[in-house]
Design goal:
266 residues; alpha/beta; 5-stranded mixed sheet; 12 helices; elongated
Length: 266
């Protein structure tokens, strides 16, 4: 099946697949069929994580050329496992509901045929740094490299900052709803009071709850740009040396800030 699909791909000039020349009705249907069936059947048969597309040096550029779609691509060793792979699997599950967005992986063989090692070299990657994530879309055609912690929550927040509508991880859903309403309806004081009441009552034991209150107060005081600037500040701190306790606290704050930096989803 894989060999057949590769043969079918080669029958199409790249300008057809990439959309630079008009297609006849039949050619258009066949091109779409080959692209999508090829990607998804390869996914079903060979992907190691449910919900992920498995790409190789035959399919990578063809997938990235699909218009109006974004791809989060993980470059990693073959048969990856462990905590970082578990975080990847969580990302895949969360991404299935996001329109025009796919999570993909490129497994790089270290021995034998060294499959996809050419893609590793192309993006100047070191095996010691695996897994490495890139975002590809119209705004990042050469790939935007992720440099944070390999945690689903932090990668999700990074994606939201780059206009991908990933669901939040590890936040308080009831407060998320009020926060979005707060941004959508012009920062009413009543929403701050509603969140404050929740923080003092049913979420009094959740340390993220008062973060919502403080962030909303700061946005009310300094404007909606506060969330983005504070996110940048927290990310910069996390890139340095911090204690495990402080890292956990700042990571929680980054999750909450992510709720306020996704206004275009409202």
């Amino acid at each position: 099946l894989k060999v057949w699909l590769r043969g079918q791909y080669r029958q199409f000039p790249t300008e057809f697949v990439y959309g630079r020349r008009p297609l006849s009705h039949m050619a258009s249907r066949r091109a779409i069929y080959v692209c999508w069936v090829g990607l998804f059947l390869l996914d079903s048969a060979w992907a190691t994580a449910p919900g992920a597309l498995k790409l190789d040096n035959y399919t990578f550029d063809k997938a990235m050329a699909i218009p109006d779609h974004s791809f989060l691509v993980k470059f990693d060793k073959s048969y990856a496992y462990g905590e970082k792979e578990d975080e990847f699997k969580l990302l895949c599950k969360l991404a299935h509901s996001v329109p025009h967005f796919f999570v993909a992986e490129v497994p790089v063989q270290e021995y034998g045929d060294k499959e996809n090692d050419d893609l590793r070299e192309r993006f100047a990657l070191q095996k010691e740094d695996f897994p490495v994530y890139f975002l590809f879309n119209a705004a990042n055609q050469q790939g935007l490299k992720y440099s944070g912690q390999v945690q689903a929550a932090e990668i999700g927040a990074w994606l939201r900052r780059n206009k991908i509508r990933m669901p939040s991880i590890g936040t308080i859903e009831e407060m998320d709803t009020i926060a979005r309403k707060f941004l959508k309806e012009g920062l009413p004081e009543a929403d701050i009071e509603a969140v404050k009441k929740l923080a003092e009552d049913q979420y009094s034991s959740d340390r993220k709850a008062p973060m919502y209150v403080k962030i909303m107060q700061k946005i009310k005081e300094k404007g909606e740009s506060y969330a983005a600037s504070e996110t940048q500040r927290v990310v910069k701190i996390l890139e340095g040396k911090v204690t495990p306790e402080k890292r956990t606290e700042l990571s929680d704050k980054l999750k909450v800030l992510g709720v306020f930096t996704s206004k275009d989803e409202l």
